[in-house]
Specification:
alpha+beta, three-stranded antiparallel β-sheet, extended
Length: 103
């Protein structure tokens, strides 16, 4: 369970764009030989279990990925987080659904 102080420090880090890096190959996480399910689709490489994946029809499997693909995924997640966390007041232009101010 994450304590409030830990959550706050994580949120502050995100706000300051100080995000953790992706796992390294020698970081102590248990990797097993297997097939990468992400971008490279290489076979028989050291892979790390990222979590469960649910597909259509309730099919459940474990998502495995190599270090290089995890780094790419991490970069995309960081970019999405930074883009999402910008204030809407800073973004130029009006929302697409905004009504015209003319009478």
């Amino acid at each position: 369970m994450m304590l409030a102080a830990e959550a706050f420090s994580t949120l502050v880090g995100i706000g300051e764009a100080v995000l953790p890096g992706p796992p390294e190959e020698d970081d102590g996480n248990e990797r097993v030989p297997g097939d990468c399910w992400l971008y490279c689709e290489r076979e028989s490489v050291p892979v790390l279990w990222l979590g469960p994946v649910t597909a259509a029809g309730g099919v459940l499997a474990g998502l495995l990925a190599c270090a290089e693909c995890i780094a790419v995924l991490h970069g995309k997640a960081v970019a999405a987080t930074l883009g999402r966390d910008r204030s809407p007041l800073v973004r130029p232009g009006r929302a697409r659904h905004a009504r015209s101010r003319s009478a």
